[in-house]
Design brief:
The chain is α/β, with parallel strands linked by helices. 37% of the residues lie in helices and 20% in strands. It contains ten helices and nine strands. It has a six-stranded parallel β-sheet with strand order 1-4-3-2-5-6, sandwiched between helices. The two termini are 36 Å apart. The protein binds adenosine monophosphate. The site of adenosine monophosphate (AMP) has 17 residues, from helix 2 and strand 5.
Length: 280
């Protein structure tokens, strides 16, 4: 496994690699969700490249950039064991050198529900993903459904800017309790960790309501909200929202595949999760 910090070297290594080349962008602190992306890339691509970069521009001023978990040594050994060929770990200055002043603003999906709660977040995400795709020029890039709004933004970015990379989205990987793996789960103490299971229980309940014929979005979201709020360690809910999976517009009736997404505060930790109604 080759470790690369310079974007020129990354570009050269990717250009010279056996095709197809798969790219797995991450912010590190790797868990089984990330590794599922790597494994999928490994089955489909001759070369697999991963990136580890805690992208400062996607964090808001009061968010957790400084405390975001960083476990580089462990991440590298996990990637090596998984058979990754190239790992790109640039510094912030390498990605955003002095004078950097071009931003990618995806409209529509980036103003979806998560974008409304994290102003500027998707601008940072779209900008760094565009840069990583330009540096690596992969045939395929792998993202997780866990960040459902993000996948819609990245699909639109790749389509609108004629990126010659296929965007592959893989299902959310969950702990046995149903809790979605997330680097931010590391912030939870054992009580909060147990309380966080309410999120998937509520999503699974919504799935049951949908399966029994309920199509009224507000009825489903009210039940989800009540169930999550019944957990005493929940500190607040940013949203429980059902949107069209592509446009990220809220829907009143669930008529075709729609994403039920939630953002929940447990202690000081903000967790997001979603399911696609009609598919899971
Ligand atoms: P992050 O390091 O949080 O930026 O995540 C890097 C990639 O891993 C993104 O495409 C995420 O959507 C994906 N990812 C994170 N958690 C999960 C999970 N539990 N299941 C599947 N993919 C995930």
């Amino acid at each position: 496994m080759r470790l690369i910090e310079s974007k020129t070297e990354m570009w050269q290594a990717c250009s010279a690699s056996s095709r197809p080349l798969g790219l797995v962008p991450t912010m590190g602190s790797l868990h089984p969700g990330h590794m599922a992306l790597v494994e999928r890339a490994r089955t489909e691509c001759a070369t697999v490249a991963a990136t580890i970069f805690v992208n400062p521009t996607q964090f808001g001023p009061n968010e957790d950039l400084d405390s975001y978990p960083r476990t580089l040594e462990r991440d590298l050994s996990m990637l090596e064991q998984a058979g990754v060929d190239l790992v790109f770990t640039p510094s912030s200055a390498e990605i955003y050198p002095r004078g950097f002043n071009t931003w990618v603003d995806v409209l529509g999906s980036a103003q979806g529900i998560e974008g409304l709660y994290r102003p500027g977040h998707f601008r940072g995400v779209a900008t760094v993903v565009a840069k990583l795709l330009n540096i690596a020029r992969p045939d395929r890039a792998y993202f997780g459904q866990k960040d459902g709004n993000q996948t819609a933004v990245i699909r639109q970015l790749a389509r609108d800017l004629d990126m010659m990379t296929e965007i592959v989205v893989i299902p959310t990987v969950r702990e046995p309790s149903g809790l979605a793996y997330s680097s931010r789960n590391a912030y939870l103490d054992p009580y909060q960790r147990a309380a966080a299971d309410v999120i998937y229980r509520a999503l699974a309940h919504a799935s049951t309501l949908y399966a029994s014929g309920q199509r009224h979005a507000a009825t489903i979201t009210d039940e989800v909200r009540n169930m999550i709020n019944s957990e005493p360690l929940v500190n607040g809910i940013d949203y429980v929202s059902i949107t069209d999976a592509e446009s990220m517009n809220e829907v009143e009736w669930v008529e075709r595949a729609a994403m039920l997404a939630v953002a929940v505060h447990i202690g000081g930790t903000r967790l997001i999760d979603n399911i696609v109604l009609g598919q899971e």
